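Page 47, continued from p. 46.
Same chain as before, 330 aa.
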Amino acid sequence: MLLHILLKQAELKLEMDKSSIPTIDLSPFFREGDEDGKKKAMETITQACTEYGFFQIENHGVPLDLMNQALELSKKFFDFPDEEKRKSSPNSGAPLPAGYSRQPDHSPDKNEYVLVFPPGSSFNFYPTNPHGFRDVLEEIFSYLVKTGFLIESILNVCLGLSPNFLKEFNHDRSWDFMAALRYFPATENENNGITEHEDGNCFTFVFQDEAGGLEVRKNGEWIPVTPIKHTIVVNVSDVVQVLSNKKFKSATHRVVRPKGKSRYSYAFFYNLHGDKWVEPLPRFTKEIGEAPKYRGFFFKEYQELRLRNKTHPPSRPEDVIHITHYAINT
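Result:
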């Protein structure tokens, strides 16, 4: 039995080494009876989340035509003159600036974006042009929420939690948001799109155009995530890292802008409600005799600190707030 387990682990490691970022086929979760397919997928996801928190998914249920349409319409929008884009400027009072925004000149991040909350949210302020953009944003948002439910349920099993634990813990979808992004072409002097970071939510979905530019840090090296049209990138984020007491890793990633052309992508953030208390679960601490690696916090408190990183960037990189802000030194 032990030999079988060791051989299985070696086989999984070899499979993951061949492909820098594993691609998981989710089709077994959409059909009855394919327990072997589900088991293989969850083993690979567990391995990826334990090591560096990044993987790609295919056959995920989001129509490819809709993904392509979303990218095309965002390109049309970002090609508009600035004065046209600013007609969709942020709605005041939202937890984040819903609508069109552009990173300030002093920011090291060089991009512009349209941010939306769930369809029907009073915070949303949609662009009126191009025609159909709002409909596509709302439709793809709804599909990504469904994909989020599936990934959440898979992570629940991978972590060995009681059935539906994460679903019940995180049942409020009102804080989810999505951004359509454009990264400006790199200059001769710099190519930073988004500085290296970990996401502060539960997990994030990304799909990008052929320009690429997304990179993940694995074993101390930056690995480019090659764009594959039908796939969605999944990165585990800080909330899952804290809940699992660092069993699953929050993915460190960045965007490098290409020369000579813009990069277009979508990022969907599967969040918690702001009033939710986050701390390592007993399953990963006292039940197994492990000390908690983080002190607890309210999700909205952490998000406010992270937002301040953007609105009032610290002069020293070491003063930027990360999840290490809540780490317990042992």
